[in-house]
Amino acid sequence: MDTAGDIVLSTAPTWAHPDGDEAPWRDHWMQSIYYLPTPLPVKQGDNLSFKLSHDDFSLWFNVKTCSENCDNVKDLNQDNRPVCTCGAHIQLSRARIRKINDGQTTDKFVAALKKVVKHDSICAIISDGSHLPLIAARLGAEKIFNFTQTNFNRKQPLMDIAKTNNLHQIEVIQKRGLGDVLASDIGNKQINVLMSEPFFSSTLQPWHDLHFWYAKDSLKQLLAPDCSILPQSGTLKAMALEFDDLWKFHAPVVEKEGFNLAQFDVIVQRSSDLADERMDPHHLWEYPSRILSNPFNLMTFDFNGNIPEKSIKKHGSIQFTRKGICHGIAVWMEFDLDGDLTISSGLQGVNSTGTPSWDMNAKQGVYFIPENPETFGENGLKMLNYHIHFNPKYATFQWTFELK
Predict the structure, then answer these.
(1) CA dist., res. 290 & res. 389, Å (int)
(2) Residue 9 neighbours by CB distance under 10 Å
(3) Per-residue DSSP letters for 156-169?
(4) DSSP string of 74-134, one letter each residue
(5) Residues above pLDDT 90, as percent of the chain
């Protein structure tokens, strides 16, 4: 169509785009990153030589430093495709590997476990691809049972690391469901420390990690009366936000280039109302936003207690703290490890301009408000009303957020 080549659509991120921050927002155009198998130290002025190789399915690079002439760099012909041999890179996502490498979070787990793990502790871990068994073993626990699904790849990396570090207390119990675990599977011992990050590969929404609570309930016959539960509780939290661009996911098109698309908007909205959940999962660190309220608690779950038999309903109101357009409500989980230490899957902090920082290793839920209402009315800042319905039988939620 553009035979002269005058029109260029760039997929570059804003920091490399010719228009910079003025570049059109195109979230569906993504960039890719190739992680070198071994980091390459470089300094300003170094010459680099790149070699791209490919097969029918993959691309990979070989990068070396060189002198002024990079034509005869050794080893660039060693272009065998990198293959994972440990199993961890096959079963764990990049975000999960980054989370395991998060030193601040690991320090919290170590501090919490030091309080409860003794030389005679019988520990059980319920998490996918977790390093908690290694921490408990290093702290001197007598035995650590790691419960997982029937999947060899989930067992291999953990046991290889444990063997290399002479941590022989760890045993992987593979069952289709935790309800199938028998006392004989754990040597007729009683578990006195039950722990979880929690993290599960099936998690799509923040509250899906409540699976730990249900898993703990399946193991209750194997727990000692004084069993320590880590984390001891989880709180569902929320906060109102104004987004730069993320709100466009649910915004009507209305009119573009002289075409009236109002009827198309109606059809799309009807289909969304029928098929889509009200809460969308997003990595909020990728989407600039500003806070419009303080974070507030929606519901707290006591993991030391039993799962309730009846539904739980909560409602309340909070006042907005600043003027703006309320595009949506962010929702995340905060886990209380031991009464002193908490782990958040969402908000990490807010700077002086009201810009929040988010956990980069988990997705947060976003409840979009299609009307995009202003938070400031005739009588000043408005109120945000919320109604939450939790069905413990199916571990599902129903939400309503509205401005008054």
Answers:
(1) 27
(2) 8
(3) HHHHHHHHHTT-TT
(4) TTTT--PPP--SSSHHHHS-HHHHHHHT-HHHHHHHHHHHHTT--TT-EEEEE-SS-SHHH
(5) 59
Can you tell me the distance from the alpha carbon of 402 to that of 404, in angstroms, rounded to the nearest whole number? 7
* Cβ contact 217:181 at 8 Å: no
Residues facing residue 391 across a β-bridge: 396
pTM: 0.90
Q: How large is the average pLDDT for residues 113-120?
A: 95
Of residues 202, 213, 201, 197, the one with CA closest to residue 105:
197
Q: In the chain, how long is the greatest CA-to-CA distance?
A: 78
Q: Are 219 and 175 in contact (CB under 8 A)?
A: no
Task: List C-alpha distances in Å: 65 to 50, 72, 133.
Answer: 9, 11, 40
Look at residue 399 and tell me whether its pLDDT is greater than 90.
Answer: yes
End-to-end Cα, the chain, rounded Å: 50
Residues 7-26: tens digit of each pLDDT: 888 888 888 888 888 888 88
Region 261-280: what's the mean pLDDT?
89
CA 320 from chain centre, in angstroms, equals 27
Beta carbons of 240 and 384 less than 8 angstroms apart: yes
| Environment class of 198 (CB within 10 Å of its CB; exposed 0-12, middle 13-18, buried 19+) | buried
Kindly report which listed range (23-37, 176-190, 296-310) carries the lowest average pLDDT score: 23-37
Cα separations in angstroms, 263 against 254, 268, 370? 9, 9, 16
Give me the amino acid identity at 391: N
> Does the N-terminal peptide bond of residue 198 adopt cis geometry, omega within 30 degrees of 0?
yes
Concatenating the DSSP letter of every residue in 335-361 gives EESSSS-EEESSEEEE-TTS-EEE-TT
